[in-house]
Amino acid sequence: MTSSLPSNGATARPFRVVMSGPLPPAIGGMASVVGALSQSQLASQTHLILFDTGKKTAANRTLLQGIQARLRLMRDWSALLAGQPGTIAHIHTCSGFTFFLDGLLAFVARRHGCRVVLHVHGGLFDTFLDGLNPAMLRIAQYIARRADLVLALSEDWRERLGQRLPGSHIAVLQNGVAEPTVAPQRGANDRPTFLFLGNLSRLKGVPVLLDALELAQVDWCVHLAGNEGEPGYAQWLGEEIKRRGLGERATLLGPVVGEAKQQLLARADAFVLPSLAEGLPMSLLEAMAARLPVVATSVGAIPDVIDEGVEGHLVPPGEAAPLAQAMDRLAALTPLQRESMGQAAHARYKLRYSVDAMAQTLLGIYEREFNIEKRSA
Asked: Strand, helix or coil at 324?
């Protein structure tokens, strides 16, 4: 359930951080962020303990089994925080019922005298809040207001959350990803190959991507890698690709992690993410770290990450024609021209979206918000 990451005595900071969320090898943005932070300067400069909230019971569990699992988790969480006032309880959360369950973690943490940080992920959190009935919205606002700090993924998301969670104290922490361990292997494809990396779902714009394939004027192909975002979606997608006669240009790969994902990023010529809604997608940052030019929609924090024509192209969400045109433009470039855009993407990643950049920003937030004296590293 938990793992303690020992501090380095020479550089340790005088505070304890207990970080909850799904842990790798779970797939998803929250697990990726927690995993990245656990390997960062945060682990060497604090007493960092990880607490796994990932689902452990079977998908067909009974209601009673689900309640029992949640009670065990709450018991373990309480035991971890008991007798440790001043601990920073850093809770990674997202939209849906999960947020209210994480609100219980926040309540327990406050009862033990801990300082509570709610770290909000996901591209639909505003939609989630807007869809709540008045009573549930008041509860959600109370959970956020009672936290010492709410972390948003961008300035745009800070504004959105501020409008919906009045009275809460919000700061910005942008996501970061690790430097790839696999070197780029460009030039291995017969034709320009885009990589889509994300949940296979309508929300990620997969049907729009298929429409763009049909509208393309340049000969390019796309590899689609990821989990099902909706039950049965992979089967539907495979049948749809076949029905449209796109079998030679669209390859469905399923979920990829670890070395396999890095190999895909290393061999691709460009990256595409036509999402209808986003926070700050980890897959986009991973593509930039892998020196890939990108085509992405102008949703969530993505416009803060990509400058049009520099690291790639931005297109409106849900529109196949602009997406096809942007992908055509990248595909029509020479390999050297695409490499130049990919290098620009890597430079932006290195400056703002590396794991070290994220960890240093978070350490600064802790120090500033909780009046912790800074020590030299």
From this structure: helix
> pTM here?
0.83
| 206 neighbors 176 (Cβ within 8 angstroms) | no
End-to-end CA distance of the chain: 30
CATH level 2 (architecture), domain 193-352 = 3-Layer(aba) Sandwich (3.40)
Domain ranges in the chain are 2-176+354-369, 193-352
Per-residue pLDDT for 34 more than 50? yes
1 falls in which pLDDT band (50, 70, 90)?
Answer: low
Q: For 110, phi and psi rounded to 5 degrees?
A: -65, -35
Instruction: Find the helix or strand (DSSP H, E) in which 346 lies.
Output: helix 335-352
**Tens digit of pLDDT for each residue in 303-327?**
999 999 999 999 999 999 999 999 9
DSSP assignment of 232-287 equals: THHHHHHHHHHHTT-TTTEEEEE---HHHHHHHHHH-SEEEE--SS-SS-HHHHHH
Do the two domains 2-176+354-369 and 193-352 of this chain adopt the same fold? yes
Q: For strand 294-297 and strand 221-225, is the pairing parallel, antiparallel, or unpaired?
A: unpaired
- Under DSSP, the state recorded for 200 is B
pLDDT bracket for residue 359 (50, 70, 90)? very high
E strand map for the chain? 2-5, 16-21, 47-52, 88-93, 115-120, 149-152, 170-172, 193-197, 221-225, 250-254, 270-273, 294-297, 312-315
Provide CATH code, domain 2-176+354-369.
Answer: 3.40.50.2000
Return all residues near 38 (Cβ < 8 A) that are at least 6 apart: 3, 5, 19, 48, 50
Task: Count CB atoms within 10 A of the CB of residue 65.
Answer: 12
